[in-house]
Every structure is written in C-alpha cells, then in structure tokens.
Amino acid sequence: TTRIGSAPPAELTAAAAALAPLTAVRASDPLGLPAQAAAQARAALDRAAVTVNQLVSAYDALDEGLRNADALLDLILAIAAEGEGAARQTAVRIRVAAEELSCLPTGWLDDPDRGLRPWLHRLHGLATAPRRLAAVHGLAAWTTTAEQTLAQARHIAEGNAAPLRRRDELRGLLRALRQKAAATGLAEDPELEQLYAGAHDLLYTAPTDLTVARHKVTAYAGALNRDPHHAGHQDQERGHT
Fold first, then answer.
1. Quick one: average pLDDT of 177-204?
2. Is a pLDDT exceeding 80 seen at residue 39?
3. Mean pLDDT, rounded, for 213-235
4. Residue 207: cis peptide before it, omega within 30 degrees of 0
C-alpha cells in the first residue's frame, strides 16, 4: 500500500492484530502456538491479501478503466438518444398519453454535481499522483451509477418503442389473415372485406389508436375463422328476405 499511497485497509489492520499475539507466543514458546489462533490469523492474512491485490490492480489499471468509462458513457448516450427518438416517433404515429413515454432524469448527464459527464471529467483530472487512488475509488462509484443509468436507458428505449412494435405486430397479423382469406377463397366476402378495410385503414393512419385497432383485427380474425358455410348461409337468408 506504500507504493500507491494508501492507508492500510481494514483487512490489513485486522490481519496485523491477529498476528500480534502469535508473534509474542512464538518468541517465548514456539511449540505453544494455538492451532485455532493460527488458522484465524491465516484466514485474516488471506482476506488482507485479496483486498490489497484488488486495490493495487485497480490502481495499475486506472488508465484502462477510465477509457472503458469513456466508452460506457458513449454507449449510454447512444441508448438515451435511441429512447428519445423512439418517443418522438411514437408520439407522432401512435395515440398515447404523454406519461406513457419516458426519458432519463433531468441532469443525469451534465449536472455539475451528479452528472456522469462532469463526474468522469473530474476523475480524469485525479488520475495523476498523488490523487490517483482517489480516482480509483471514485471510478468504482461512477461505474456503478453509470451501469444503473445504462440499464434504465435501455428500459426506457424499449418502453418508448413498444407501441410502434405492437402496431407493426398488428399489421403483420392482419396481412397473415388477409393471406388466409385469399387462400380459402374468402377474400371477396363483403362482410370480411369491410372488416379488413376498417382494420387496415386504422393501422395505416397516424396517430393509430392501438386499442381500437386490436379490436378490429380481432373481429376480422373471428369472422374469418367462422365456418365459411355459415357466412354463405347468412347471405342466402338475406337474399330471401
């Protein structure tokens, strides 16, 4: 820890405390070392070694860690822009309430105190001795916050794009039903044609009301899945009246 300018971590202090009585016993009675105390000291030393090695590794890898942080911030920016773009497209093409579309909290990027960009800039400034160790600890905290922000940005982007995906799924289902109607010779049925046209017009007009569109596609599917002879029988009854 002297090389990196760190105060002894708690694990190292605990290991020294566990070794102290053993050292005294060894000096006066080497054969009287208690086995349990020796095992406890060994475990404390192992924990201290892990902590120190992690600290030294982080210190030596700080420059690479900062480069990775820059890349992570770029990724968050890209995903956030994707979410904002999806929100704009959805607002124009789908009838949704404003609260159904989301964005990252205000200030997540550029707030002077907690924004990821100025925070990372400060860490870059600390990367030279004697503040390098502070940058190590700060980078760990920054990375935790940045990864949480990335997960949130992805969730937002997915949520903002979901209405457009649902519309496209309904369009795909309607096309498949239309093909089924053609394959079964029902494409020219007047009732089916009217139901199809209503669903098609709604799905290809902006802003689309997805609830109404889903009902119309479901109605078309229900009519199509009826026994074709039933539809023909209804036509005959209408003809007799």
1. 93
2. no
3. 76
4. yes
The runs of H, that is alpha helices, within 94-189 are 116-125, 132-183
Lowest mean pLDDT among 96-100, 138-142, 169-173, 191-195: 96-100
Whether 201 has a pLDDT exceeding 90, the answer reads yes
115, with CB counted inside 10 A (0-12, 13-18, 19+), is: middle
Question: What's the one-letter identity of residue 127?
Answer: A
**Length of the chain as a residue count:** 241
| CA–CA dist 188, 59 (Å, integer) | 74
Could you give the 3-state DSSP secondary structure of residue 115? coil
d(CA 14, CA 20): 10
Position 129 scores a pLDDT of 67
> What amino acid is encoded at 28 in this protein?
S
Measured in Å, how far apart are the chain's first and last C-alpha atoms?
A: 98
Extract the tokens encoding 174: 């309607």
Question: Residue 100 belongs to what H/E stretch?
Answer: none
The confidence score (pLDDT) of residue 237 equals: 45
- Contact predicate 203/218, CB 8 Å: no
The two structure tokens encoding residue 65? 């860690």
Q: How far is CA 148 from the centre of its chain?
A: 8
Q: Are 132 and 61 within 8 A, CB to CB? A: no
